Amino acid sequence: MKDTKIDSTRAELDSSAGVPPAVAGASGPRFGEVSIRDRGRLPHWEKRGATYFITFRLADSLPKSVLNRIESERQAIVKTANQLHRALSADERKKIQLLSTPIIEQFLDNGAGACHLRNPVIADDLANTLRHFDQRRYRLFAWCIMPNHVHVVVRLLPRENLSAVVHSWKSLSAKQANRILGAHGAFWQGSTLIT
After folding, report:
1. Where are the domains of the chain?
2. Are 81 and 93 in contact (CB under 8 A)?
3. Which residues, other chains included, contact 4 with Cβ-Cβ below 8 Å and sequence gap of 6+?
4. Across the chain, what does the average pLDDT equal?
């Protein structure tokens, strides 16, 4: 995992929602210090006091063939840059971003997979999981539970870690859902591709 710190000399605006968009071609960080975690895929931008829009999805919400195609095309772009002994260009990073986002959104919106979040008991348990640490670890502003994915708007409280918070949501809710379904194994998609 590579961490990069970016400092800005501009004053932070009180009304700022926090993190600038983490998409290729977007403006760079403007307010304070931003940590960028990058595991060779889409970067995760983190800023203390930021408000985050988070999407996570069920393990079966994207067919394996789609994931394999996205990963294969991504690897081809990275391999070309490596063969030329250079970092990815802005255009290549943008191509990788555009490669996955529209495809993923289409499958999510079309209701791909078993859509276990349609089950009201599983959806209620997930909503309770999201609310559990509200005001103790984070401020939960809004959430939307779709049939095969979840959207959350949240601001972390001081000393909290974004990946730890999301991991706790996914871990707790997966155990409950698998118990309800009488199933075992992955319930949530890993963080390889994140929208």
Report:
1. 52-60+114-181, 64-109
2. no
3. 35, 36, 38
4. 77
Amino acid at 140: L
173, burial (CB in 10 Å: exposed 0-12, middle 13-18, buried 19+): buried
What tens digit of pLDDT does each residue of 94-141 get? Answer: 888 777 666 667 766 776 788 999 999 999 999 999 999 999 999 999
Using CA atoms in the order 28, 33, 36, 37, what is the torsion angle rounded to 10 degrees?
-170
User: How many Cβ atoms sit within 10 Å of the Cβ of residue 179?
Assistant: 12
pLDDT at 49: 81
pLDDT, greater one: 32 or 45: 45
Fold of 52-60+114-181: Alpha-Beta Plaits (3.30.70)
Query: Could you tell me if 88 and 77 are in contact, meaning their C-beta atoms sit under 8 angstroms apart?
Result: yes
Contacts of 26 (CB under 8 A, 6+ apart): 20
